[in-house]
Amino acid sequence: MIIVTKSDVSDAEIDHIRERIESLGMRTHLSRGERRTIIGCIGDESLLDEVPLRSLPGVESVTPVLKPYKLASREFAADRTVVRVGGRDARAEFGGRAISVIAGPCSVEGRDMLLETAREVRASGASMLRGGAFKPRTSPYAFQGLGEQALRLLVEVRAATGLPVVTEVMDTRQVDLVAEHADMLQVGARNMQNFSLLAELGRVRRPVLLKRGLSATVKELLMAAEYIMANGNHDVVLCERGIRTYETATRNTLDVAAIPVLKRESHLPVIVDPSHAGGDAELVAPLAFAAVAAGADGLIVEVHPDPERALSDGDQSLAPSSFALLMQSLDAFARAAGRTIAAPVEARAVA
Ligand code: PEP
Ligand code: MN
User: Fold this and answer.
1) What are the structural domain ranges in the chain?
2) Closest CA relative to residue 18, chosen from 1, 34, 37, 41
3) How far, in Å, is the centroid of ligand 2 from the Cα of 288?
4) Is the dihedral of CA 246, 249, 250, 255 positive or negative?
5) What topology is assigned to 2-64 in CATH?
6) What is the Å distance from ligand 1's center to 329 Cα?
7) CB 189 less than 6 A from any atom of ligand 1
8) Which of 18, 67, 218, 235 would be a feasible disulfide site paired with 207, CB 3.0-4.6 Å?
9) How would you class 264 by CB atoms within 10 Å of its CB: exposed for 0-12, middle for 13-18, buried for 19 or more?
10) Is 304 in the pocket of ligand 1 (CB under 6 A)?
11) Rounded-to-integer distance, Cα 31 and Cα 235, Å
12) What are φ and ψ of residue 57, in 5° steps?
């Protein structure tokens, strides 16, 4: 149920409406937009049958939300959400007019390669650095990531470049450690329905990059976001990264339609990972263009200084020079979609 308030509603009236609803054991969520204020109600809606909500002072309209996701639903927010990542010295944002690009290696393999990649992607216009520390690998014999050492390298390279960093958290036991180091926590496709992890991330004061599960529906992705939000963290960025279909010519099938569908269903920003979708460096640019044309708020792209020697996902990693070309070509697609590419980090306030 959402309550839209009158434009001249007072704070006291809002408090009164919320108190009436919460006294029934329901939860409320306030969303103040530029032009309207929405009070979302969560819980057993039949409890509200006895309350004359429409006649409470300050109430304009009352509408049921039939979707199973509430906090994540478009109706619950007065405006689209802009998720801000990082602190004073290293900042990025998702969901505004500008498209932000996250780039970096699949895995952090060492200091030199991370710093080199970060410098190159920053020079090409990336807003954030990615790099896996704890890697979800299909084989237990494959490189599993440098773990805590990689987290320390990410912090070091953030300080050197001003790029906020995102890295995956695979397990509830890693949440505090990863949150101490990273500006944004990634939930990988394989963990999208790890509900205890999602609940734990609700308690963290860091934005979450939530990747769509390998075979998850849009609704399941939004319910996963709802888990994080219901537990207290509203800074969630959704990521379409391709889904498993019968097609084997690509690693996954990029579900381009999911971008406008997610943006219709939810106020949360939506970004796209063309690297894991196609699984092939040659496909990264065309899939990135399609994503931006379809309304994506950002991209996350794998870049490696020497893709041939990458310890994970080399086939789909771009060399820095190819990433530079991608960024140059992306600009026209962004403009055609009525967007811009986020200003380079140098142009922002970096200490
Ligand atoms: C990754 O970003 O390196 C990764 C493992 O992605 P996904 O969870 O989408 O497969
Ligand atoms: Mn990868």
Assistant:
1) 2-64, 83-341
2) 41
3) 16
4) negative
5) Alpha-Beta Plaits (3.30.70)
6) 25
7) yes
8) 235
9) exposed
10) no
11) 14
12) -60, 135
Q: Would you say the CATH fold of 83-341 matches that of 2-64?
A: no
Output the CA torsion sign for 275, 276, 281, 284.
negative
**What is the distance in A from the centroid of ligand 1 to the CA of 276?**
7
Residues with a beta carbon under 5 angstroms from ion ligand 2: 106, 313
Phi and psi of 74, rounded to 5°? -55, -40
Q: Are the beta carbons of 274 and 254 closer than 8 angstroms?
A: yes
- Rounded distance, CA 49 to CA 294, Å? 41
Does ligand 1 have an atom closer than 6 angstroms to the CB of 241?
A: yes
- What type of residue sits at position 52? P
Q: Which ligand is nearest to the CA of 186?
A: 1
Q: Would you give per-residue pLDDT tens digits along the chain (351 residues)?
A: 999 999 999 999 999 999 999 999 999 999 999 888 999 999 998 888 888 999 999 999 999 999 999 999 999 999 999 999 998 777 999 999 999 999 999 999 999 999 999 999 999 999 999 999 999 999 999 999 999 999 999 999 999 999 999 999 999 999 999 999 999 999 999 999 999 999 999 999 999 999 999 999 999 999 999 999 999 999 999 999 999 999 999 999 999 999 999 999 999 999 999 999 999 999 999 999 999 999 999 999 999 999 999 999 999 999 999 999 999 999 999 999 999 999 877 655 444
User: Residue 23 phi/psi, 5° resolution?
Assistant: -65, -15
User: Can you read off the two tokens belonging to residue 59?
Assistant: 């109430």
**Dist. CA 306 → ligand 2 center (Å):** 15
Q: What spacing in Å lies between the alpha carbon of 30 and ligand 1's midpoint?
A: 33
**In CATH terms, is domain 83-341 a member of 3.20.20.70?**
yes
**CB-based contact 67:73 (threshold 8 Å):** yes
Tell me which amino acid residue 169 is.
V
